[in-house]
Design goal:
With about 260 residues, the chain is an all-beta fold. The protein has one helix and 17 strands.
Length: about 260
């Protein structure tokens, strides 16, 4: 990573000194998979990762988020272990059942998260240590020849292990406690339609856990048509026009629609 800041201005209007850095990272990863039966798979993964701060985190956007050019790269070790089941049934009305579950854990140094002051102004900061662990599970059903139902659920405990005693043991800002999705999809003669529901709960905007975020509920739907090499798609997101803020005072888009045309050579 080569990073050079030629010039910038602080929030108080004073010029910042020129700075540059040159970093190199080695991130080993390993994964194991064991298939004792045709329909059963056990798997586990272990690896290091590095996440450089984004331009949004470094320099901010609009008036609700200010930049922090002194951010360090986030580093951690990820581990997961779980299983998958894929079962082809003998029933015509229910052809396939697939499900999976896993435990995951991330030990993170210099976690990058947004924190807010009393005015509601946000700023990305490094949290010295964090531990994120939890479980996730999913299921998929293929039935009635043309339909597929999928669902997933994630529970996690994103714990702040900062050296600052007031924040140690609190929940990390910007991370949900639970997340669940459900999707029903139908296909027929080149047409595909879907409806989707997403729910996320238990997030805080601040390190002290005094600013709880509103639960997120989103309904999406769409339809597509594959005609020869063309794919026409129409999708609607947040159809209930839910007023949700991923960052405190920074509202996400309301109801929106997207139309696209794709051609495959």
């Amino acid at each position: 990573i080569k990073d050079k800041l030629n010039s910038a201005t602080s929030i108080s209007g004073t010029p910042l000194e020129e700075k540059s850095r040159d970093e190199g990272y080695l991130n080993p990863q390993i994964g194991l998979k064991y298939n004792p039966l045709d329909w059963l798979i056990f798997k586990t993964n272990l690896g290091e990762y590095v996440r450089e701060p984004s331009f949004f985190e470094l320099f901010g956007d609009r008036g609700f988020i200010i930049g922090n050019p002194d951010l360090k790269a986030e580093k951690g070790i990820n581990f997961d272990a779980g299983f998958e089941i894929n079962w082809l049934t003998q029933y015509q009305w229910l052809t396939r059942i697939s499900c999976d579950a896993a435990y995951f854990r991330s030990d993170v140094d210099d976690f990058i998260g947004f924190v807010y002051d009393a005015r509601g102004i946000g700023r990305a900061e490094n949290i010295s240590e964090a531990l994120i662990q939890g479980i996730e599970a999913g299921i998929r059903l293929d039935f009635l020849k043309y339909l597929r139902l999928t669902g997933s659920f994630t529970w996690q405990n994103p714990e702040n292990q900062s050296q600052i005693e007031a924040f140690n043991g609190k929940q990390l800002p910007g991370r949900f406690k639970t997340s669940s999705t459900g999707n029903l999809e139908g296909t027929y003669a080149g047409f595909k339609a879907f409806v989707e529901y997403i729910r996320e709960t238990g997030m805080y905007y601040d390190r002290a856990n005094l600013l709880p975020a509103k639960d997120r509920n989103m309904f999406n739907a769409g339809i597509s048509w594959l005609y020869r090499s063309f794919l026409f798609s129409l999708e609607g997101k947040n159809l209930t026009d839910d007023d949700y803020q991923a960052f405190n005072g920074y509202p996400m888009p309301g109801r929106s629609y997207f139309f696209s045309i794709k051609y495959n050579f």
